[in-house]
Amino acid sequence: IEDKPGSTALQQLQQRSWLLHWSLFVFFTHPQGRDMIIRLFFEEKYLQAIQTNCPWLLRYLTTAIIVNKRGQDVLKDLVKVIQQEDHSYSDPVTRFLECLLVNFDFDGAQAQLHQCETVLVSDFFLCSVAQEFMEEARLFIFETYCRIHRKIDLNMLAQRLALNQPEAAEKWIVDLIRGALLDAKLSSEDNTVVMGGTTPSIHQQVIERTKDLVTRSYLLSNNLEKMLVEEQNDVGQGHAVMGGYDQGGGRGRY
Q1: Could you say which DSSP state residue 211 is in?
Q2: Which of 49, 68, 100, 191 pairs as cysteine with 109 (C-beta 3.0–4.6 A)?
Q3: Burial code of 217-237, b = ≥16 C-beta within 10 A, e = fewer?
Q4: What are the two backbone dihedrals, phi and then psi, of residue 151, each rounded to the nearest 5 degrees?
């Protein structure tokens, strides 16, 4: 697409948009498709195509990131894009993320999660990951809620996680604890979950702060290179114009 001679910017935009749509047939059937869709959709030119021409593809990007733990690195960037495109497109999947990470509206996130299940089951590409999405979304709600609470009532937790009964919420928490995914204890006396007071180590904090450094440095160097090329082109065009003016002036004097 990029190297095709004679294609206009509009034609390239249309071709990128078609490629993004066709890629859904591959990404949600390939074993590594969830990683590949995140890499492709976040490339600058393809992300611009999504925002300009097909913002509804944000549903598939959001789903891929939620069900892919390695996609959490770009979560903040995704939230920014969702906020920017909220005026042109939103659905229960994108609104779920916005309610949870922007507004910290857990009631709104719970309501959107109920709608997400209906949307995903009826989507040709996403129906196969609907159950996995619901599990990861519940974990997402729980992790976010635990950042601001130390003690959580199981009855309330069952409602937040769109689980039918407190027993289901308790079983879900027990499975997390057994899988070493959660530092918490169940208190049978008052039917609550007590969170552990873990603090990230210095090493973890350094990793969190520098994990995007390579990507950001690469984007910065590319932008600087483009600016230098454009500046050189402008200077070259200026010299060409001045040269033509001098030649024309010289012919006029004779």
Answers
A1: T
A2: 100
A3: eeeeeeeeeeeeeeeeeeeee
A4: -135, 125
Per-residue pLDDT of the chain (254 residues; tens, 9 = 90+): 666 666 788 889 999 999 999 999 999 888 888 889 999 999 999 999 999 999 999 999 999 999 987 667 788 899 999 999 999 999 999 999 999 999 989 889 989 999 999 999 999 999 999 999 998 898 888 878 777 777 778 777 777 776 766 677 777 777 776 664 566 777 777 777 777 655 555 665 666 666 566 666 766 777 787 788 777 776 666 555 555 555 555 544 44
Write the burial class of residue 136 (CB in 10 Å: 0-12 exposed, 13-18 middle, 19+ buried): middle
Between CA 131 and CA 58 the distance in angstroms is 19
